[in-house]
Amino acid sequence: MATMAQAIRLALHYGEENLGVTDVFGEDVGPPLGGVFTCTQGLRTAWNSPLDERGIVGMATGIALAGGRPVAEIQFCDYMFNAIDLLKLAGNASWGSNGAYHLPMVVMTPVGSGIHGSMYHSHSVESVLTHIPGWKVVMPSTPLDAYGLMLAAIEDPNPVFFLPPKALLRTKGEEPIPGEPEDARELHNRIDAPLGDRSQWKPDWPEVGRHLVPIGKAKRMREGRNATVLTYGRLAPVCLEADKQLRAEGFSFDLFDLRSLVPLDWDAIVASVSRTHRLLVVNEDTEVTNFGEHLIRGVIDRAFGELEAAPVLCAGADVPGIGMAWSLEAASVPQLPNVIAAMRALAVAPAREAGGRGFLELPTRLARYR
Amino acid sequence: MATMAQAIRLALHYGEENLGVTDVFGEDVGPPLGGVFTCTQGLRTAWNSPLDERGIVGMATGIALAGGRPVAEIQFCDYMFNAIDLLKLAGNASWGSNGAYHLPMVVMTPVGSGIHGSMYHSHSVESVLTHIPGWKVVMPSTPLDAYGLMLAAIEDPNPVFFLPPKALLRTKGEEPIPGEPEDARELHNRIDAPLGDRSQWKPDWPEVGRHLVPIGKAKRMREGRNATVLTYGRLAPVCLEADKQLRAEGFSFDLFDLRSLVPLDWDAIVASVSRTHRLLVVNEDTEVTNFGEHLIRGVIDRAFGELEAAPVLCAGADVPGIGMAWSLEAASVPQLPNVIAAMRALAVAPAREAGGRGFLELPTRLARYR
Amino acid sequence: MDTSLELRIHALMVGARVLEEQLIAMTRSGDGYFWIGGPGEEAFNVPLGLLVHKGEGPAFDYLHLHYRSSATLLAMGAAPIDTLRQMRSVATDPYSGGRNFVNHYARHDWNVVPVTPTIEVQYAQAIGTAHVQRRAGGEGITIVNGGDAGAAEGDFATSLVWSSRPGQELPILIVVANNHYGISTEQRTQWAMSDIASRAEPFGIRHARVDGCDPRASYAAIAEAMAYVRAERRPFCLQADVSRLHGHSSSTGGGLVAERDGLLEYEAALIAEGKLTGEQAAAVWDERRRALKADLETVRGEPFPDPSTIHAHTFYEGEVR
Amino acid sequence: MDTSLELRIHALMVGARVLEEQLIAMTRSGDGYFWIGGPGEEAFNVPLGLLVHKGEGPAFDYLHLHYRSSATLLAMGAAPIDTLRQMRSVATDPYSGGRNFVNHYARHDWNVVPVTPTIEVQYAQAIGTAHVQRRAGGEGITIVNGGDAGAAEGDFATSLVWSSRPGQELPILIVVANNHYGISTEQRTQWAMSDIASRAEPFGIRHARVDGCDPRASYAAIAEAMAYVRAERRPFCLQADVSRLHGHSSSTGGGLVAERDGLLEYEAALIAEGKLTGEQAAAVWDERRRALKADLETVRGEPFPDPSTIHAHTFYEGEVR
Ligand SMILES: Cc1ncc(C[n+]2csc(CCOP(=O)(O)OP(=O)(O)O)c2C)c(N)n1
Ligand SMILES: Cc1ncc(C[n+]2csc(CCOP(=O)(O)OP(=O)(O)O)c2C)c(N)n1
Ligand SMILES: [Mg+2]
Ligand SMILES: [Mg+2]
Question: Rounded CA gap, B355 and B266, in Å?
């Protein structure tokens, strides 16, 4: 099975050959490295940019303005904060020109913690990016979804953020990409750049097929009854594992990998909450003005009456960075034990008592789960 | 009575003379203009910077690192989005150095809509800024609060965002600044720069006094029973007016101008919600991943059981800009009729029925109030 | 330059000036809230507009303009009434549907990309259209224009770095319209050099400085720079020294200030050279003023945007191009 | 330069090299996750550290360093064990309490401001400490150091613009440590010029280029540049051509690469000049290695940060200075 990095590479290859992608570029994206996470090795249109994120976003905007179809990489999402204005401007090109222009561009940038990225290299960015109107925002948690979301992002006429979790780029999935060789070694030999001199190397691309994950559709990972759990990215497999362990205790959860943060699959979310009557949102961004709070508010708007316990956010601590020491990282972004504790606590919270104001005040701050 | 712009100027003057302010600077902050909103006219330490917001934030950081006490202006908050990284770094200087450094710096930048700022010049930024850990965030809605919050911001050893609403900078308050001349004309003559040649002009500062508004304390503007209303900035006087009109209909609201967004006055908020059992948050930032959603989640965390109706957010439409045409601006950021409609709707929403799931699903999207 | 072109430039300059004066008047008559525009830049902007290869797509020139570029648009053939529409923020505004400030153009069929409300970012975006044109070959180039003060933003440096990458040089004309001010701040208090285009020198980028108040000198300088960029597919950086005849914007009053007026100078020269009479010149002004008055009446009858359209085009709704 | 200084420089260079080798070994022994550092920059960074006016406050030099500046810190007198502490992310790490990557220094008593995890932003911050020093007078200056690739960010231009404002010139030494690469990307593919310091020319900023693999040339060039900045209170831009002996970081392997080694060249020269014997040189290396081994044992016994401290210093808790 392909890793997520390989899946992205295959998607970009498919995009170059079939969807009109003209430029895959960014810092160290072209040869010899092919991306610090190897996502862009061997691609025909990949090239190295200067070390200048504003230039990268501006270049992508300009390419899209001139009818090209760029996939720009910001090496780590953490380096994008000097270009939020340019991203906002890309997001308002269509609206601001009253529809005269549109920008089919993808900005791909790895997000989140879990690779010992330390203080600044471990950001989650969904709270900032979902607040920029005019952009779609997708985040895969499996290689196949990465493949399908990238194809959908490329085909979309709007700017799309494609946000692979750093911590999952090297993990393999359970579902093959259509056309992927069965043997992982074969895939490796055909498309991973060799160590050492690469100047003569060319990938031997497998014939991968068209597989789109529609933007705006959540994936129900598990069906269950104790609560609805909304998550995405690095924490999707963590929540799966938590669900598995809690099933042994007799609990079960309606577990969603949202995949698409803008637009949201409100239908699926509301239908689930209307069945489970409880809601937990799990992400790793810092907890103040967190996208998960939007999810909670959106559910309240649509189905407050369905909630029989307080909706809960399990998110990152409100601290200026992620500590380098593992003891600190584990204390500031949710880990498996925190997620299990949050899920269990929500499942056992007493339903509000008839007529009273007896809702359990659930502790939702990460710190309290430790 | 002083306008808010004059109040800020007086506060900066007080800061220069008594609190060690070393630099008030930014684009057009020094002579001859003294700020596009006149907030920095006549100040001893005011100077004009190059047109470079990254330089401005970097300069402020460096001044604070070297023991100075800067107040940097970003001319409109809308120009700050190319410097979010530098702001984040300022916010993590203390945490990241484990307390070795601290940055006593104020970034002052006018925010919000209401001055025909069009597409890009009408941003609200609190949702982005409250998500940057390590910064305090204050927003005045009256001249006296502007004065007191600026003094507190200057005295604070941490970086502080001081966010006067663009639309209120020219409005007068009802409470005088200590030491302010009684006659507004006198104040004008003494501290407003004259039209025409200003090269010989010097202000004749009144002896203003020390008046601090502690950061972290909300102001209860009105006491009432139908619901708790949390707001700040431009919409504070709008909510006051809405409350006034609704009192004629027999409603009353526990109305708070938060003033300090980080840190929040949770004690006051929770105490109020525990009394009114209903919550409305009113702001003008776009509604997806909006700081008001944090307020709602925070109340849910602390007092879900107290809520007898769904908490409501009345905020800006999720569009990429504010239309230049007034018809468009009024359709995208809350205006008085929207606020009145939201307050009334919340006040009359039936309390949840005993035992059932009968909470009224309140329409919270701005569009639905029109 | 033949006389007919000289007279055409004159007429276009007058048209642009009169348009800007009309816009300023509209801030006072309640027909608009905020004015920003280009009176004082016509002598440079009209030649620029005339020399553009106008059309859609990479074979034609891309324009990344600033908010003082009305004369360029008019020289390209834009209808003045459309600028009045944007000023009044009516629904018929073809550039933004009443959503953006006046003189913030966007025209897909002419490769005029949206004028940005933030300073200097166009220099970071322009490298992208130029990149597509570098690959496309042909004669299409990218033109980017902005002010002197704004060149202090890193984006100006970005345009120099990215347009001079060895073997990847971009066909881009980088213009700095130097009016010696950023709002109230004098250039000489913030800049070590008076010719900002000289910053291109260490990058091996050709550069020049021209009197942007002189339309004939501007025409020649732009033509030469463009010829180089079109043929050599390499960047060129051009500073034009211009005036800011009505100050920064309506926020600073919008009144006339004492600066060189390239239009009056030029008109006087044409008269002295016997190419135009005083009456003919006056007729040009009158005709434009009259036409604009009629345009304004038309625009006043047009509706403001319907608030129910507020979400339209947040995401693209048109045909995918 | 007298021999005792030459030998001191040698010993410091060896100490820095051995420290970096130890750090790389620690990524393999599980004593740390990520390494980035400065082997190949010692010949420039040791002289820089020796020439710093070390102390607290504007009368002394401010250092805005990058993640390859270990040799500068050692030359200033930092204890190598503290770098091991940061590498292992133990609570005793005096620079960040186990919160930041290795070689990300912050020392208030020496005016070493926090090394930033993002490239080039230090150039935008450095103008602020220099501004305070301009006003303070005296001899204190600001030194900012970063890489070649990073100079493509607008912040490099910001440092040039802001440090050369007429009448407001800043006492700042702007260094570009040019190792000809940004991670995998060769400088010559992205830059039109080989001397990035030449970008200072149009700003009227003095500039120079030095062989940063030669400690004696570096010492002289830094001393000259500093003397100018200290006395004239004006900016100076200096490019040092250096090596990147173990590649970019542990992410790219951390193995030795075939580049000029300024330390070995220098050691050979000192031996050839009769100032050092082979045995003496070997003894310096041995002694440093032995000491570091002992340091590592100490560090291994030290605790990791207590998770309950996670919120500490989010807001300042110390005495207000
Ligand atoms: C990023 C940004 N910063 C600040 C502003 C506010 N602003 C608008 S025009 C202007 C001055 C621009 O001066 P210059 O670049 O010389 O152009 P000019 O207006 O003189 O033509 C400023 C500061 C802005 N629009 N965008
Ligand atoms: C703003 C930002 N962009 C990208 C990176 C990732 N990154 C770290 S080091 C590096 C290369 C830096 O090259 P250079 O400036 O030449 O310094 P060197 O590492 O070669 O000393 C890159 C791209 C970063 N840390 N910050
Ligand atoms: Mg100007
Ligand atoms: Mg380098």
Answer: 29
User: Does a structural domain hold residue B282?
Assistant: yes
DSSP-assigned letters across all residues of B270-319 = HHHHHHH--EEEEEEEESTT-HHHHHHHHHHHHHGGG-SS--EEEEE-S-
Q: What's the total number of domains in chain A?
A: 2
Domain identity same for B241 and B184: no
Q: Is the pLDDT of residue A367 over 90?
A: no
At D318 the pLDDT is 74
Both A157 and A23 in a single domain? yes
Indicate whether C310 belongs to any domain: no
N-term to C-term CA, chain C: 40
Cβ neighbourhood burial of C272 (10 Å; 0-12, 13-18, 19+): exposed
Tell me how far CA of residue B121 lies from CA of B51, B115, C184, in angstroms: 16, 9, 19
Structural domain that includes position C49: 3-302
Is B205 domain-assigned? Answer: no
Ligand 2 binding pocket includes D148 (Cβ within 6 Å): yes
Q: C307 in a domain, yes or no?
A: no
A145, A173, A191 - which closes a domain:
A191
> Is A121 a catalytic site residue?
yes
Residue D187 within a domain: yes
**Structural domain span for residue B267:** 219-368
Parallel, antiparallel, or unpaired for β A136-138 and A260-262?
antiparallel
Indicate whether C176 belongs to any domain: yes
Ligand 3 center from residue C44 Cα (angstroms): 14
Q: What is the CATH number of the domain that holds C107?
A: 3.40.50.970
> Could you tell me which residue, A362 or C229, shows the higher pLDDT?
C229
User: pLDDT at position C321, please?
Assistant: 53
Closest listed residue to residue D247, CA positions, set D189, D184, D194, D186: D184
The answer, yes or no, to whether any atom of ligand 2 lies below 6 A from the CB of D247, is no
- B250 φψ region: left (φ > 0), alpha (ψ -120 to 50), beta (else): left
CB atoms C152 and D166 under 8 Å:
no
Helix axes D278-300, D3-28, angle to 10 degrees: 40
**Looking at ligand 1, which atom is closest to the CA of residue C148?**
16
Clarify whether residues B229 and B328 are in a common domain.
yes
Residue pointed to by tokens 């001191």: D8
List of chain D residues with pLDDT < 50: none
Q: From B4, B72, B30, select the one nearest B198 (Cα to Cα).
A: B30
The reply to whether B74 and B36 lie within a common domain is: yes
Q: Is the model more confident about B352 or about C146?
A: C146
pLDDT band for A351, please (50, 70, 90 cuts): confident
Does B156 lie in the same domain as B80? Answer: yes
Asked if the model's pLDDT at residue A356 lies above 60, the reply is no
Interchain proximity D310–A27, CB inside 8 Å: no
CATH code for the domain of A132: 3.40.50.970
- D100-152: pLDDT as tens digits: 999 999 999 999 999 999 999 999 999 999 999 999 999 999 999 999 999 99
Which value, in Å, is the radius of gyration of the alpha carbons in chain D?
19
- What value, to the nearest 5°, has the Cα angle with vertex C100 and ends C97 and C102? 100
Tally C-beta pairs within 8 A across C and D.
67
Residue at token pair 């890793």:
A3
What average pLDDT score do residues B90-104 get? Answer: 97
Q: Six-digit token pair at A90? A: 């890309």
Q: Which residues of D touch C199 (CB under 8 A)?
A: 199, 202-203
Q: Which amino acid is at B293?
A: E
Quick check: B354 pLDDT over 70?
A: no
Q: Name the domain count of chain D.
A: 1
pLDDT digits (tens, 9 = 90+) for B29-86: 999 999 999 999 999 999 999 999 999 999 999 999 999 999 999 999 999 999 999 9
- CA B136/CA D197 separation, integer angstroms: 39
**What's the rounded mean pLDDT across residues C237-249?**
97
pLDDT score recorded for residue D320: 63
The residue with greater pLDDT, B350 or A315, is A315
